[in-house]
């Protein structure tokens, strides 16, 4: 027996009413993009399912790739038949007898094609009876079967499936707009990016670096992380911001207890400018409440005051251990722990204020006059796309 299709069931997007088409179209695009290495297959989608015609391709590596596509609820390999009783019986018999370690089964028929002459309950009995009388070793168990055979009788054809493989869930990347992710080389921000993608958001990234205090290898680390993130979504544009001069100025002119707060505010200000320039409607960070000095409630309040742009913090209520688990699951962790310096740690004061007072922040910042520097630095920023990195990365090709 050779499965001829993979049936893909949509996840949460089936709840989306009139907008459903936007979501299914995005998912179709993302699935085609993900599977472009499989030249024989054909992807067809309709309102409630996607059908991938295998044309002889092995389903396993395809399923492996689809597991990471957001917007998929579940998947199954399938046998397609005509809407014909005898054909369905044959296919179901083949499926049952080729399975190993199966003693009990159950049939679940769904008949959306009302022209098919037998109702779904009756067909469960008809097909069950047929399978029992054409085999010796099986019994029916409707409560805890070893194998549940699903028969989906649709308008154009019938699909027979058994096991469901869980998809990544969430919404298709690109269906909820874009965010600008503040991407450091740490553990948290790539996880924040991943979780945001899970809600259908496409990423663009911004990274602040301070050469020569931060090295080429620190920059490479960030690009490697962005590249890994691409695996779960689309091409990512990374805005590399040369931050040295401005950081030095902050370091020189702001009392050290407050320099970190001011530096974070300036980072947000620059991020807001880039987001506006790129028509991106939100900023995302990897901040988690209470993790470090800049992430106390008082710090977040003082830092956030600089912008009225929406700042998404998907990790805000998560424990570090849980963040690390996700980081490992998505293969970021080993990159994140490479020991290279980050611009924010190079200039971080020994004792940053954990409860900065906003009026003081504003007072110190008033002397700083950084508008001109921001303009220059935006003019000098480098934009790198992960699609251009991909060609260089053998590891990534293997992943794709
Ligand atoms: P991460 O693990 O993401 O680096 P962290 O726990 O080290 O986070 P911070 O260094 O305080 O915490 O950074 C908080 C957030 O600020 C990061 O999650 C990231 O979104 C942003 N950030 C920090 N450094 C940079 C940087 N050099 N470029 C861009 N964003 C940064
Ligand atoms: Mg960090």
Summarize the structure.
The chain is α/β, with parallel strands linked by helices and 400 residues long. It has helices at 20-34, 59-66, 85-98, 120-133, 188-198, 216-230, 244-253, 256-277, 297-304, 320-329, 333-336, 343-346, 358-366, 371-379, 386-390, 394-399, and strands at 5-10, 42-45, 49-53, 72-81, 104-111, 139-140, 147-153, 158-161, 165-166, 178-182, 202-209, 237-242, 283-284, 311-312, 382-385.
CATH class of the largest domain: Alpha Beta
- Low-confidence residue ranges: none
Q: Do you know the CATH architecture of the largest domain?
A: 3-Layer(aba) Sandwich
Secondary structure: number of strands: 15
Molecular shape: elongated
Q: Determine Rg (CA atoms, Å).
A: 27 Å
Estimate the helix proportion, in percent: 40-55%
Bound ligands, each once? adenosine-5'-triphosphate, magnesium ion
**CATH homologous superfamily caption of the largest domain:** HUPs
- Proportion of beta-strand residues: 15-25%
| Number of helices, counting only DSSP H or I runs of 4 residues or more | 16
CATH topology of the largest domain: Rossmann fold
Taking the sheet with the most strands, its summary is: 9 strands, mixed
Summing up helix and strand content along with how strands pair, one would put the structural category as: alpha/beta
The mean pLDDT is: 92
